[in-house]
Amino acid sequence: MTPTTVPVPLAGTRRSWGDRAFRSVTLASGLLVLLVLVLIAATMTGKAWPAFRHAGIGFVTKDNWDPNNNHFGALSLIYGTIVSSAIALVIAVPVSIGIALFVTELAPAGVARVVTVIVDLLAAIPSVVFGLWAILSLALTVQGPYKNLSNLTKSIPIVNSLFKGPVQGASIMTAGIVLAIMIVPIISSLARAALATVPESDRAAALALGSTRWEAIRVAVLPKVKGGLWGASMLGLGRALGETIAVALIIGQSTHVSADLLHPGATMASTIALEWQEAGGEHASALIALGVVLFVITIIVNSIARGITRRSEARLAA
Amino acid sequence: MLSLTLAACGSSSSKSSGSTNSSSSGNSTGSTAQVSGTLNGSGSTFQQIFEQSLITGFKSVQSGATVTYDGTGSTAGKTALANGTADFAGTDSPVKTTETAQYKGKALLYFPIVGGPIAVAYNVGGLKNLKLSPDTLANIFQAKITKWNDAAIKADNPGASLPSTTITVVHRSDGSGTTSNFTKYLAAASKQFTLTPGETVSWPAGTVGAAKNPGVASAVTKTDGAIGYVDYSTAVADKLNMASIKNSAGSFVAPSLAGSTAALDAATINDDLTFSPLNEAGATTYPITSPTWILVYKNQTDATKAAVLKAYLAYALGAGQQLAAQSYYSALPQSLDQKAVAQIAQITVGS
Amino acid sequence: MSAVPAPAGHLTSSISAGRRARNWLATVWMVGAVLVALVPLIFIMLQVVRKGLSIVLKNFPDFLTKPIQVQSIFAGGGMGPAVVGTILITGVAALIAIPLGVLAAIYLNEYGAKSRFASILRFFSDVMAGVPSVVMGLFVFTIYTLHRSNGDKLVAFGGSLALAALMLPIVIRSTEEMLKLVPNELRSASLALGCPRWRTTVSVVLPAAAAGIISGAMLAIARAAGETAPLLFTIGLTYTSNWRLFHNQNTTLSRQIFSNSGIGFPAATDRAWAAALTLIAIVMILSVAARIISSRFNAVIIAS
To answer: Looking at residue C59, what is its pLDDT?
Structure first.
């Protein structure tokens, strides 16, 4: 503790000049985020305007992405973005939380440290390398399992339309898997940090009462960190929604809505990345409009997540 | 600075070959005065490898000058020229009417530098020497022909044993000049091709997109029954099977550098040196041939850059043409090359 | 609250089979999750090392310093300019984003807390994390690159700005999560001792959260260093090293991976893998360094 000579004990309410200055600096940094975001939104919407005006509501409701004919119905891209990110979350959240629990609750310190370093290594792999690996080897190895999946689900209604085939290695499913791998380090690192906050005494108390380790986790640990785990998953989702190069390489870039997850698809980010370099005029404007839509989707997703978190916190408090 | 002034003065006369030669370049057409400064180009990925050869060769005769070329795509290159992030653009297609506004009325010059075949690569069992007519090719890429033993393919390949394998069409997932030239060819050669040609085509559902030339090449290699289009250099590097395409003179021609030079030679050249070598006739002409240009402002504002630019163009159209074949580009035919060299003198410096 | 009592005795004696099964399942889940994450990592690392290592080692350490081979279809050359560019561009981005992000997070957690304004700020910072990197590049291109003087528009700093914008929300979110974890008792104790809030934050809260903050910042740096898309419009290309932030074009390892992997010749593909290996190695070294620093921090806290 740094020694201090301020004599007044009611420091919490007292505002020194240093306090006021520091508060202003931090507030300014916070405001900068808003400023940047407003600037992004303004410049992007400005540039996207011609496309929005041309396509109207059809931009998000029509499935006809055909740049050469100036048709910009981005439904298939919105669909691909949401579905691939959803697949990624379904896979990555349990895995990430599992890893975080392993590190904080189960493994001896040495093992935990090694696992932490290894998982963080995943974060160090650049997106383009994930993409290259995915297209060079993952896309080939998944074809067998995909065929089995397709055959297994053939007679189950609804599910069979998700896995109908003919299966393609470059598909929405593969993109979701790659995204999952990419967001595991983010989610698990934050989940780990959240778990580490739960005081050792809470676990000890639960265990002393005769709980199994899992019961201690479920009762004494998880409820306390629910908000943190949601925050972690949200950051992961943010990354998944906006991830560009890896998805662009593996998703097969087919701009048609298809219920079949084992078929090529496209996401908004992949389309921006792939088509940008040869896009001019209205096409370029439409690609920026995709960025705006992605923006809006992120806002919606975040609002929903925040609602859920708040409700769960409220329930916890009650 | 002295050398710059010399070069800048040289530009006002019709040709700047008057100075005595101090470098050992074998180039007789362009300026050999020493220039210095940097020149940044960007654009067409198709001409990127050739630009890299040029940059290396140019550095050896003009050690004071630095040229870079960033393969960002033709449209991005044209935009970069317009907004000043590049000094010259590489492009596989002339400026479209929708793109002219960005140059604010400033005059542009096109310098054709090389050409090259676009290969139709396939992987069907052990099938070799596949022949395809334009209509068959158009229907395969529109997913109207779906099996390799389709009657139309049989008709193009009498006597060949064709399997019943399903055709997997592989196309470029990224916007590309290769896609543009390939679809423009299909539109020109076959009435049955109804998709709108361009850099980013709305291919039918069920076809697979792969990124860039290597992506398409690897997808074709790894998928039995696949067919796709790639730049010739990639097809050669990856040892892909390449189809012979029936040209408008009725002969089936396999992609080759000679075949695409013949196409460049057969093309009608406009006054501004734009042209389309697609679907040209001739016994040895390969019909899917891509042109590519360096695009510059006619009036340069910076004398230093103008001097480097003129020297670079002179090199590209002179000694540089010898470098084309080593990286699988076809050199310009003599007549076109001379027209382009003569056009260098039209570049002026002013503000 | 000393060491956790070993519950082994309880487990075998008084716990029902169902509870034991659930406990066992949970253990399988945790261990399985680690293994599932390991599989792709091992595959990717093997591939990168197998394809990249021989190229890097062929002329080591020259590979890390030599100029880039202009003719990408031929073997040879190094990645010097890209190493320089990566360190320069990502480093400057980190210098911008980390202080700003940490300060913003301090506002959110220490001052704003549950206020409406803070929750709006928090919300939009998460939204910012979802902005695709390619859009971020475009944004910087519009507000910065285009306004630079003619002939020198594409420079390293443009890339730094784009990467900083990408890092900022990650740093804010992870830092705030870490600050939340600092027990309130620490703050109360410090405040009760008469420390003003800012001193409390700087000398008590931040050090307590340092390890987590650094590890969050590392995640942000790792993400930024591997980014390609925003650099496509902002930094241009160079074949020789350029340490200048505001002058002449630049390049990075990620850009080299991207462009070399797009050329179908073996020499270019090999170079892409070698650049990938170099990039991963640099980020790893940074991670390890940060980990050591943060553990020092922790040690200091515990000691004091």
So the answer is: 81
Q: Which chain C residue lies closest to B211 (C-alpha atoms)?
A: C262
Residue A125 has φ and ψ, to the nearest 5°, of -80, 120
- Chain B CB contacts of C259 below 8 Å: 70-71
Beta carbons of C132 and A291 less than 8 Å apart? yes
Which site among B85, B99, B173, B202 would you substitute to test the A interface, given the most A Cβ atoms closer than 10 Å to its Cβ? B173
How far is residue A67's CA from residue A279's CA, in Å, rounded to a whole number?
9
Which residues on chain C are in Cβ contact (under 8 Å) with A138?
Answer: 40, 43
- Sign of the C-alpha dihedral computed for residues C165, C171, C174 and C175 taken in this order: negative
Provide the 3-class DSSP secondary structure of residue B154. Answer: helix
Nearest to B215 among A64, A135, A263 (CB): A135
Shortest alpha-carbon distance between residue C26 and chain B (Å): 40
Q: What are phi and psi of B45, to 5 degrees?
A: -75, -20
Compute the distance between CA of residue C252 and CA of residue C259 in angstroms, rounded to an integer: 11
Q: How far apart are CA A69 and CA A56, in angstroms?
A: 16
Instruction: Check B40 against C263: CB less than 8 A apart.
Output: no
Task: State the alpha helices, DSSP H only, in chain C.
Answer: 8-14, 17-58, 80-106, 116-129, 133-143, 156-181, 184-192, 197-200, 206-225, 253-261, 266-303
The more confidently predicted of residues B197 and A158 is B197
C-alpha B346/C-alpha C5 separation (Å) is 89
Which of C4, C22, C37 shows the shortest C-beta gap to A200?
Answer: C4
- Specify the DSSP element, H or E, that contains B90: strand B88-91
Best C29, C79, C127 member to test A by mutation, with max A CBs in 10 Å, is C127
Answer whether B59's CB lies under 8 Å from B17's CB: no
Q: What is the largest CA-CA distance in chain B?
A: 71
Nearest to B12 by CA among B344, B317, B351, B296: B344
C70:B238 CB<8 A: no
Which pLDDT tens digit goes with each residue over B255-267?
Answer: 999 999 999 999 9
DSSP letter string, A214-279 = HHHIIIIIHHHHHHHHHHHHHHHHHHHHH--HHHHHHS----S--S-TTS----HHHHHHHHHTT-
In sign, the C-alpha dihedral spanning C117, C119, C121, C127 is: negative
Q: What is the gyration radius of the CA atoms in chain C, in angstroms?
A: 24
Out of B45, B230, B237, closest to residue C265 by CB? B237
Instruction: Give chain C positions within 8 Å (CB) of B59.
Output: 70
Whether residues B213 and C145 touch (CB distance < 8 A) is answered with no
CB contact under 8 Å between A280 and B96, yes or no, is yes
Residue A212 has φ and ψ, to the nearest 5°, of -75, 170
Q: CA torsion sign, C72 to C74 to C75 to C77?
A: negative
Report how far apart, in Å, the C-alpha atoms of A4 and of each of A1, A181, C198, C297 are. 9, 48, 13, 21
Q: What is the pLDDT of residue B4?
A: 39
Closest-approach residue (CA) in chain A for B203: A254
Q: How many C-beta atoms lie closer than 10 Å to residue B351's C-beta?
A: 7
CA dist B158 → B151, B190, B241, C32 (Å):
10, 21, 18, 57
Q: What is the DSSP letter of C201?
A: I
pTM (predicted TM-score): 0.84
Cα-based distances in Å from A72 to A66, A68, A281: 6, 10, 13
Closest CA to B65 of B303, B300, B307: B307
Name the token pair of C63.
């590979």
Per-residue pLDDT tens for A93-108?
A: 999 999 999 999 888 9
What is the least distance, in Å, from the CA of A16 to any CA of chain B?
50
Distance CA B255, CA B243 (A): 8
C14-43 per-position pLDDT tens digit: 678 888 899 999 999 999 999 998 888 888
